[in-house]
Structures are given as C-alpha cells and as structure tokens.
Amino acid sequence: MLRLIAPAALSAVLVLAWTPAPATAVVTNALIVFDGVFVQPQATQGHEISILDFGNRYQVRDVLGKVTAMSGCSQSGDFADCPSADIERLVASGKDAPDNIVVDIQATIPATLNGQGGNDTLTGGSGEDQLFGGNDNDKLFGGPGADRLIGTTGADQVLGEDGDDTLVDEAGDDTAATPAGDVYTGGLGFDRLDLSARTRPVRVSQNGIADDGRAGEGDNVTEVEWVLGGSADDTIGGTG
Q: Which residues make Cβ contacts (< 8 Å) with residue 69, sequence separation at least 6?
C-alpha cells in the first residue's frame, strides 16, 4: 500500500484508506491513489516502484509493468503523472514479497516506507523519512534529511546516509538464525543508535569489525555519535 497524503486528508486517512481518491493510477495488479497513493502488491509478487518528483507532478513507475493513469492523473507512456499540489507526505507499504520502493532524492516531502515481509530495499528522499524494514533481510537507505530507520528481524543493512539520523534496532533479543548480523551505519551528521529494546548485554565497539551486538551475533556498528543501550550491562565504545 502506497499513498500520498494532502493536508486536508490527514484526519480522514484511516477511514478513507480503501476509498479511491480523485487522482488514481494502477501499477500492474496494484492500485495507486494520489491524495493518497495506494500500492497494494499481490502477496506473492513484489514491485520495483519509483516515485519521481518533477516539481509540479509526481511520476509513478514500475519496472515490472505498466502504470495505468486513472482519475486525476495523466498517462505518459508506461508511466502515470499525478499533480503534486498540496501533497504533504508519502506513505508506502509493501507486502510479504521482495519490494524495491524508491523515493526521488529531489522529493523533500517526508516519506514513511514499510517493507513488511520479504527481502526489501527501501530508499528515502530528501525529507525527514521513516523506514521500517519488516521481517526478513532488508536494506534501508535514509538519504538526505534527519531520518528514522528501524531494523527488525533478519540480517538488515541500515544506512542513515546524510543528515542527523536515528537507527533503531527494534528486533530486541531476537534469537532467530540469520545468515549474517545486522549492519548499522550512521553516515554523515550526528547519528544515534537506539538499542533500548535489548534486554541482554550487547557490545558496540565501532571498530569496523562485525563483533557487535550479543556475543557471536556478528552485528557491525559504525559512524554513530550517540548510543542508547538496553536494560542490561552493555559495553559501548566509540571511534575517539
């Protein structure tokens, strides 16, 4: 499910979540509605969706199929152009399949992206974005702006990139077997790592070696300036 929300629609977004709004486009078997934009991929099929910002309009593309413009949008080849007037934020949610959702780096509106299940790749724009990996092995790229990136179960790669970002390990003391540990990299800016969901002792060394997290977990934490530990006796180090 993917949606763009205009200010007037904010208070009614939960009620109107399944009601077609004036500007609509269809991505293969998914429906996109502007004011909000809805993308609901099939449970067994992911999507390669890009939202491009051309100033006065957003263009929706899907590498895996044609995007059909409906009410309020115009057709541009295999893409759909939808007016960006009054759009205040973007919300996108995948399904239990591998999804690749990319917000144009030119887009300054805040974006909330949720990968759900599947090995997803989520890329924020230049706004203050929130990225939720969901289950499985996800890659989160915050882009410019003060972003909040949340890793859950699976072996996640969480990269804040530019801006003062907050990286959150929401999996807590997950004991599920994963092919590798998590990677948390703050990037440029004053970045924070939130390990408050942890109840067992963890180590954060920032030495460039995958020896962080619980003993033997194999996480790798780098380029963060502030760490919030969990409820146990943690060992927190810095780069000096």
A: 24, 25, 75, 76, 80, 81, 82
Instruction: List the domain range (segments joined by +) for residue 156.
Output: 128-240
Please write the tens of the pLDDT for every residue from 100-118.
889 999 988 888 888 888 8
| Domain tally, the chain | 2
Q: Assess contact for 213 and 227: CB atoms under 8 A.
A: no
Q: Which of 192, 229, 225 is nearest to 212 (CA)?
A: 229
- Phi–psi pair at 45, nearest 5 degrees: -140, 125
Please tell me whether residues 82 and 177 are part of one structural domain: no
State the Cα–Cα distance between residues 80 and 4, nearest whole angstrom. 14
- Biggest CA–CA distance in the chain, Å, is 58
This prediction has a pTM of: 0.81
* Residue 154 near residue 136 (C-beta atoms within 8 A): yes
CB 58 within 8 Å of CB 34: yes
Chain centroid to CA 222: 20
